[in-house]
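Example record

Each entry pairs one chain with its bound ligand, IPE.
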Amino acid sequence: MEDVPEHIAIIMDGNGRWAKSRFLNKAAGHRAGAQALRRLAVDAEKMGVKILTVYAFSTENWKRPQDEVDTLMELIHDYIQQYIDDSKKNDMRICLIGDLTRLSDELQRKIADLQEMTSNKKGLRIVIALNYGGRDDITRAARKLAADVRGGRTTLNEIDEKMFASYLDTKDLPDPDLLIRTSGEMRISNFLLWQTAYSEMYFCDKLWPDFTIKDLEKAISQYRRRDRRYGGRNE
Ligand code: IPE
Ligand code: IPE
Ligand code: MG
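Structure tokens for the complex follow.
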């Protein structure tokens, strides 16, 4: 495929409603959602996408009932383990963004292992946003930057957008070209607030576990028809 967005970000929403419509519990919905991501990553890589950033758990998702949070954390744990096992045979590079310090020590260790084991891979880059919030990302960046100014490692005059972005979790990533949100909701829900300043938005009604390569192709073909101007003029 030509003119494929290099970096696609996805708000994988609708697991709960998917489960409900099938009279299943929430865990089954989240499990189906995790499988949908595994499939889509393979498809996206074949299509030529370079980076896939996915919203797995927001800083606000802790507000959910404790049993759902526990289930999600267990699933994420299994999922990370599965990626560790898969990494022996595939070429995907996986990293995580978000405030990982709130996760269990064991999960933090597993994540560190996974990032380390895949750091030299050359295939699709999967960025998993876990306990991620756009405002939290910016706030943590501001705190680190303030500490650097106070410590004399940088000065106020050196602060500009590029420099500030280097303090964000996404420091070594280009901004997303395309942001997809499933399940019919048309909001950002505190995802990559800084980074999506000029991303193209695509909303679709499909619930995340039902999202397939066909839906990705639809999103990309719409993206291709967009005229990205970044505030300038293209004629
Ligand atoms: C998205 O699915 C997954 C997470 C937020 C972890 P939801 O669980 O939000 O699904 P709905 O919105 O209730 O259908
Ligand atoms: C956003 O979905 C977070 C993830 C997909 C991980 P939510 O379901 O939490 O968002 P709201 O509550 O509908 O805005
Ligand atoms: Mg939701």
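The chain has a mean pLDDT of 97.
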